[in-house]
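Our consortium's second objective concerns turning raw sequence data into structural hypotheses that experimental partners can test. To show how far this objective has progressed, the report includes one record in full. It was chosen at random from the queue rather than selected for favorable results. The single chain below, 254 residues long, was entered without modification.
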Amino acid sequence: MSDPYETTEAHLDRLLGRALNSFDLPDPLVERLGTALAHSSSLYTTHRSPATGAWRESHRHTYLLADGGSVSLWELAYRQESDRAVRYEVFASRAEIRPAVVRLFGEAPAEAALDPAPLPGDAEPGRDPAGLSALFAAADRCRREYTVEESADHARRVLRRAENADRPGAQVAARLRSAYGHRITQAFGTRASLPGGRDAGFSLYEHAFVLLDGAEVSLWEVEHTATPDGRHMCEVYESEEAARGAMRLRARVR
């Protein structure tokens, strides 16, 4: 997920600096990335094994370049069984993630339920003459990418950790039992000064689900520390409007 306060240069330095295999990226690609003006990041797939503690996530990082082109890097973050360290590898194409997962975990990764429409940077070394606005407009227009991985259980966990009294009820929970794909997107993140002078953090996430009947349902999760003792709290709502309204209220009354 993108940090709205991180510069593109800092983001790229962090990405390449933590990757165990960044030296495998083609030199011409790394040189082009040095001219990046803007970036957008998103979670692509996620897989967790509670029994062993192993997990992995793949992320897509898309960069708009000074020459008008754009490129994407694909990052694999993972923790292997009996290993507490989180490790990272980065690749020039999505196709390279599959053999990496087979090498590390001995299994092929689950594919997204819906294959996304191509974004600028999918075909290298092609060039896209569109500017920054076109890059992010294309990202907004593309079809959602859903991960097929214990989605109904993910919905159950999101609802279970909600502490607000007006959280989605039994009807929504029952409908989400048929979820077979999901996607997590950070929609907002900031820190706010509360009336008492204390700062609190606010983050808003959309948990989007695709159901067996083809319908799409979203849960909007607010994570914040605007509590009397500053502890972390989660609230879940059925609409973005309700979630943002709750954040505004918490920022005023705590």
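The partners drew two points from this record. Strands lie at 36-49, 54-65, 70-79, 87-91, 179-193, 199-211, 216-224, 233-237. Confidence is low (pLDDT under 50) at residues 112-143. Both points have been shared with the crystallography group to help prioritize constructs.
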